[in-house]
Amino acid sequence: MNQFSEKLFSKTPIVGILRGYDKETVLSISRVFVNPGFTNLEVTKNSPNDYGIIEELVAEFEGKLNIGCGTILSIKDARKAIKVGASFIVTPIVEKKVIKYCVKKICLFFQELFHLQKFIMHGNGELKW
Questions:
Q1: Three-class secondary structure of residue 77 per DSSP
Q2: How much helix, strand and coil, in percent to the nearest 5, is found in the chain?
Q3: Are the CB atoms for 63 and 36 separated by under 8 Å?
Q4: What are the boundaries of each domain within the chain?
Q5: In this predicted model, what pLDDT tens digit does every residue of 98-116 receive, in sequence order?
Q6: Strand residues in 7-94 grouped as ranges (E)
Q7: Is 46 exposed, middle or buried (0-12, 13-18, 19+ CB in 10 A)?
Q8: What is the pLDDT of residues 59-102, one digit of tens each?
């Protein structure tokens, strides 16, 4: 497993999200992304060959990028992502098995929280589920 680097994350606490791109496009974008000092990249599960892309990114950018897998919906997805080297997981749902597995594997876990379609904005500026 590719270990998540707090040092890299702190350097540039922004996560680039690549959704739906093929391997060649992701690799090209990643090479440009890393040059100015960006350090955190997520490949979503709806990308063709998602796990293969993550595996290749880890081989090329280990130590330069935190590479994560997004849109994780099940323990099966989490296992595969961590197995190919994802150092963090992003999920739009709360799935206890996924959370426990990430903790066990010492893999950082992010919960997608702000899907605006799931929230209603109230007049007082308060967001409500």
A1: helix
A2: 40, 20, 40
A3: no
A4: 6-128
A5: 888 888 888 887 776 554 4
A6: 16-18, 40-44, 66-70, 88-91
A7: exposed
A8: 999 999 999 999 998 999 999 999 999 999 998 887 888 888 88
Q: Which residue has the tokens 């490949």?
A: 43
H or E element, residue 87: none
Tokens standing for 32? 């440009």
Tokens of 84: 């190919």
Secondary-structure class of domain 6-128 per CATH: alpha beta
**Residue found by looking up tokens 């707090």 in the block:** 6
pLDDT at 118 over 60: no
Q: What would the two tokens of residue 72 be?
A: 């994780």
Distance in angstroms (rounded) separating the CA atoms of residues 123 and 73: 33
